[in-house]
Amino acid sequence: MTELLKVEHLSAGYGEAVVLNAISLSLAQGQTLALLGRNGTGKTTLINTLAGATRQHAGEIYLGGIKLHKLASHERAAAGIGWVPQERNIFKSLSVHENLTAVQRPARAGRASSPWTPNRVYELFPRLAERKTNLGTQLSGGEQQMLALGRALVLNPTLLLLDEPCEGLAPIIVQELLRAIRRITREEGLSAILVEQHPQAILAISDTAAVLERGTVVYQGTATSLQEQPELLDKLLGVAR
Ligand SMILES: Nc1ncnc2c1ncn2[C@@H]1O[C@H](COP(=O)(O)OP(=O)(O)OP(=O)(O)O)[C@@H](O)[C@H]1O
What we know:
Layout: E1 3-14, E2 17-28, E3 32-37, H1 43-51, E4 55-63, E5 66-67, H2 73-79, E6 81-84, H3 96-103, H4 118-124, H5 126-130, H6 141-153, E7 159-163, H7 171-187, E8 191-196, H8 199-203, E9 208-213, E10 216-222, H9 223-227, H10 230-237
Parallel strand pairs: 3-8, 3-9, 6-7, 7-8
Antiparallel strand pairs: 1-2, 1-4, 4-5, 9-10
Helix pairs in contact: 3-6
The structure holds adenosine-5'-triphosphate.
């Protein structure tokens, strides 16, 4: 399997504060990694570091062999990182359609599946098609999350970073989002890192899993093997899930 992402001895944080310590991880092309851990263990900091939004103190991140360290967030987007931050960060004063067209990028050369366009996002989320002309301020939390995901997709990324996509949403919307994420990763083969505190839903749609504790990786393995060890899950994440 071709390696897409390689993280080596990464330390990072905010200003002088170091949150992540000596993190090493890798992700193969077309695979999905579930990034798990209790509150405050550094999951968001790791995602933000991959996206270029924290201070990297040591180590290196390679995406498709390209070193990301010196690249700013927008340059990482151009290099293939599709980031859906926890805060969603859609443009609230623009319409749904404008949010998508404002960031759309052409697909990379050599890509096997069809490029992501606003129309393909509307196919994935028919709700957004109905709200095409609505402003960001007029969307529900679930619709905002769908739009945030759609915005990352129209960048035509090679790696999707999804930070707690289901947080605070109604179960029916969570199901819709998980179905869409499964389609994007499983059927379209887009590589992804999915952050969650509640592992069952995303372990089922992930190939591998990593668990963070106090800014370090304390478990790495296949998603299936973690799912099959409820006692270990309980020990690592606190509650039997
Ligand atoms: N902007 C910031 N400045 C300084 N420290 C921060 C900042 N954001 C987070 N931290 C600290 O970094 C540590 C890891 O936080 P982080 O948000 O990465 O954890 P998390 O695993 O994503 O948690 P949660 O599941 O609650 O989102 C925490 O101790 C937190 O207080």
